[in-house]
Structure formats: C-alpha cells, structure tokens
C-alpha cells in the first residue's frame, strides 16, 4: 500500500471468544487474530464475558470483554467509539442479532465492516430486516457456494460477497503415522446434535458391524442427543464397537490416534474437525455438504458420500478400512491440500488483502 494510506487496524468481534473454545467459529476468530498479528496487523478483540476466569489477553492478543447482560448494548458502542481513532475495520464472526448489532454500530461510527457467515443454516429463519442489515455491510464472507448463492438470490450485491476459507496450523511434515495394529480406529468429533448426523453414523456402524471386524468407532462430544445415542448403542448391541466419550480439548492428540475421521453431517460450512484432521494427514470420510468436497479435493472423491445415506457411509468406511494403500494415499493428499489451501498464515494474508481492498476500493496495491 502507498505510504499515505492507512493500514488495516482490526476490531475482531466474536460473542464467545476463547477461552473456552465454544465452537469452530470461535476457534477460527482466535487463529485468525493471532495470524494477523504475526503479519503486523493491529488486532484487538471485542467479546462478551461469560465466565469469571476468562483472561484479558490470550496468546498475545488483547481481549476486551463486555458484561453478559443488557449493559453490553452500551459497552459495545462505547468501546467501538473509543477505538475509532486508531481502528478502521470491524470484523464480525458472530452471525446472530448481537453480531448484526455490533456491525451496525461499527458502520455508523465509520468502520468498514466485514461480516462472516459460516453457513446459511446459521441464519435460517431471519427476516427482511436481517437481510437489509447485511446489505449495509461492506463485505460478507461465506465458506461455501450454497451460502453465497442464497445471499445473492436474497439481493445482496455479488461484488460484496467473498467466498473465503477457514484456516488451520499446518506442520511442514505430516504428523500422522500409519498404524499396523488392529483394530483400526474410526473417530467422530463434534456436538451430539441432529445437524452432525450422529443417528446416521450409528446406522452405518450397525451395517459395518455385519460386514467387517477389527474396527472401533469412538464418538467424542456432548449434546442433547447423548442419552438417545447411548440407548441406541445398547439397543443395537454396538457397545463392543462404538464408544461414546465426553469432549476432549486436546483435539490434535485425539485426532492423531485415529486411523480415519468420519463426518456424517447434514449441514456444515467449513468443518474445523476436517481441517485439523487434514493438517495431521488423517484420512477423512465425509458427507457432501458445505465445503467438504472442496476440502477433500479430487483425491478424496471416493470418500465423499450423500447425506442421509447410511449404506453409502458404511461403504466408504468399509473402503477406508480394507484398502490400506488408499487410506495412506488419502491421508497424504489431505495433508498436502491443507498446506496448499488452508494454512492459517495464507488465510490471514488473504484477509489482509480483503481489508485493504475494503478500505480503498479499486485495483489492489502490492
């Protein structure tokens, strides 16, 4: 950028900024904040305090926490107004009414507003006022083609919609090692909710048990379906092959112990579990939703299946169990794609470019 132009200075808003990590979007907000800081971009976080022991600095990123009551509606504009002299971008990661409120306040104060929507289902049911508000923001960042098309069809200027990516920390060398012992270990990690396809996974496991031995499926997570899933495991006599365990914060350690990750979701944007599996070189079987097809790439096509098709999911799981060379090649290809397309440093550089072009529309300057 030319010397007489401001460099981007970002207020990153996420209503539940870590710790703890409440979900994928919160983790992405923090990863991006750290990577932008490493690029020399000034970043400060605005969020809401939901716990007594949440720090005001995390991995070198300053975190400003408003109180979790009605006074946040005053604190958010007060802080945005105070920072306006030194900040020019407000990047909102929370696609809810509090995120829209923050974005509208920032816009009124003269910030350029970047509003991220991981997938269209997160905003399903919102009315005309919601979409009118989105039209006021400078850029919408979406993670899959379906979401982009939905907002174009709703009248959002296509030039304002950016198809972006989540990012992940990727080591230069693949960390996942091929195991030679049995049983082979399949892994599901996620919330135990309808969206994640947990019921279909148990149906597929029931089919798989009839056709293959020497495998175990571990389902790591918590949620409203937990009791139902435990009951189904008992009813279908799956306890010898399927184990349900609580969520584990050390995601990399859990993933590194798996021979393959299974993502049977009905809806996704860009799955963090898939990205983290890819970063380690762990093979993935996933449904054809959200950005999964792009993430897994051409080499991963045999391991992409339709949603709500437990038999197809079983066939893909069977293939990953029975074909060791294919499993090894799939994991290696995913690690290479993670390095090429999803390394968080590269994603941060792309966001920096988006910020610069949003501040100064026209030909990008380098």
Explain what the structure shows.
- There is one protein chain.
- This protein has 366 residues and is α/β, with parallel strands linked by helices.
- The protein has two domains: 9-167 and 343-359, 3-Layer(aba) Sandwich (Rossmann fold), CATH 3.40.50.2000; 184-341, 3-Layer(aba) Sandwich (Rossmann fold).
- Helices cover 41% and strands 18% of the residues.
- It has helices at residues 24-38, 72-83, 97-108, 128-136, 145-153, 198-211, 226-235, 251-256, 272-280, 292-296, 310-322, 324-342, 344-359, and strands at residues 9-13, 42-49, 57-58, 61-67, 89-92, 112-117, 139-142, 161-163, 184-189, 215-220, 242-245, 260-263, 284-287, 304-305.
- The strands form two sheets. The chain has an eight-stranded mixed beta sheet with strand order 3-4-2-1-5-6-7-8, sandwiched between helices. A six-stranded parallel beta sheet has the order 11-10-9-12-13-14, sandwiched between helices.
- It is elongated.
Tell me the layout of helices and strands.
Blueprint: E1 9-13, H1 24-38, E2 42-49, E3 57-58, E4 61-67, H2 72-83, E5 89-92, H3 97-108, E6 112-117, H4 128-136, E7 139-142, H5 145-153, E8 161-163, E9 184-189, H6 198-211, E10 215-220, H7 226-235, E11 242-245, H8 251-256, E12 260-263, H9 272-280, E13 284-287, H10 292-296, E14 304-305, H11 310-322, H12 324-342, H13 344-359
Helix pairs in contact: 1-13, 2-3, 3-4, 6-11, 9-12
């Amino acid at each position: 950028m030319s010397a007489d132009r401001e460099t981007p200075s970002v207020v990153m808003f996420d209503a539940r900024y870590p710790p703890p990590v409440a979900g994928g979007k919160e983790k992405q907000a923090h990863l991006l904040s750290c990577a932008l800081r490493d690029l020399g971009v000034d970043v400060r976080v605005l969020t809401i305090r939901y716990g007594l022991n949440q720090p005001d600095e995390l991995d070198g990123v300053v975190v400003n926490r408003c109180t979790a009551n009605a006074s946040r509606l005053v604190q958010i504009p007060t802080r945005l107004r105070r920072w306006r002299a030194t900040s020019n971008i407000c990047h909102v990661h929370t696609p809810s009414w509090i995120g829209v409120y923050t974005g509208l306040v920032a816009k009124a104060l003269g910030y350029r507003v970047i509003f991220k929507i991981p997938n269209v289902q997160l905003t399903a049911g919102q009315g005309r006022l919601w979409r009118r508000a989105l039209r006021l923001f400078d850029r919408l960042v979406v993670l899959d083609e379906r979401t982009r098309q939905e907002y174009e069809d709703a009248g959002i200027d296509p030039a304002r919609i950016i198809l972006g990516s989540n990012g992940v920390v990727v080591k230069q060398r693949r960390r996942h090692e091929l195991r030679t012992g049995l049983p082979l270990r399949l892994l599901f990690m996620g919330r135990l909710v309808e969206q994640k396809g947990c019921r279909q996974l148990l149906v597929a496991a029931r089919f798989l048990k009839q056709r293959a031995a020497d495998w175990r499926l571990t389902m790591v997570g918590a949620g409203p379906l937990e009791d139902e899933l435990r009951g189904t495991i008992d009813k279908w006599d799956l306890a010898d092959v399927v184990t349900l365990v609580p969520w584990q914060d050390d995601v990399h350690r859990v993933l590194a112990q798996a021979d393959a990750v299974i993502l049977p979701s009905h809806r996704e944007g860009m799955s963090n579990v898939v990205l983290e599996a890819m970063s380690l070189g762990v093979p993935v079987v996933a449904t054809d939703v959200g950005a999964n097809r792009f993430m897994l790439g051409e080499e991963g096509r045999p391991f992409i299946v339709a949603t709500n098709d437990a038999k197809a999911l079983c066939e893909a799981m069977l293939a990953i169990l029975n074909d060791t060379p294919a499993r090894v090649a799939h994991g290696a290809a995913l690690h290479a794609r993670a390095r090429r397309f999803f390394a968080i440093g590269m994603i941060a550089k792309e966001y920096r470019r988006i910020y610069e072009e949003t501040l100064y529309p026209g030909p990008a300057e380098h």
